[in-house]
Amino acid sequence: MEFLFASGIGALTAAGVYLTLRRQTFPVIIGLAFLTYAVNLFLFAMGRLTIDRPPIIATGAPGYADPLPQALVLTAIVISFGMTALIVVLALRGFLETGNDAGSAERGEDGVTGASDRSRHRSRP
Q1: Which of 16, 55, 81, 123 is least enclosed, having the fewest CB within 10 Å?
Q2: What pLDDT digit, counting tens, does each position of 24-78 carry?
Q3: How many Cα neighbours within 13 Å face the side chain of 50?
């Protein structure tokens, strides 16, 4: 079972890294989501989750579940949701500004991104 769990974490990590290195912005967003899922599963695995154990120490209980991994994963979920929302807004803004989904734009003659496009559209007196 540990091998299957570790293989799943490895597959999510590999897919996340592969998609993060793509040129378009949408695969980058999906890749970062895969990486956050892999980190969450890794945190769960490191916490040695137990079944049918109370999260608070109680008298008469044979043991208790460690609440720290659960708190870390909940925090990671909130942070990844905020990060994903920010990246989606930035990608949408970049798409609306440039008109394409590419992560990098072409540079003009003077080295400024999009400078050649702006100079073509200027009205000359």
Answers
A1: 123
A2: 889 999 999 999 999 999 988 887 767 777 777 778 878 877 788 888 889 999 9
A3: 12
Contacts of 76 (CB under 8 A, 6+ apart): 36, 39, 40, 43
Distance of CA 105 to the CA centre of its chain: 23
Q: What gap in Å lies between CA 51 and CA 100, rounded to an integer?
A: 49
DSSP string, 40-99: HHHHHHHTT--SS--SS--TT-S----HHHHHHHHHHHHHHHHHHHHHHHHHHHHHHHHS
Averaged pLDDT score across all residues of the chain: 82
Largest CA distance in the chain: 89
- pTM as predicted: 0.71
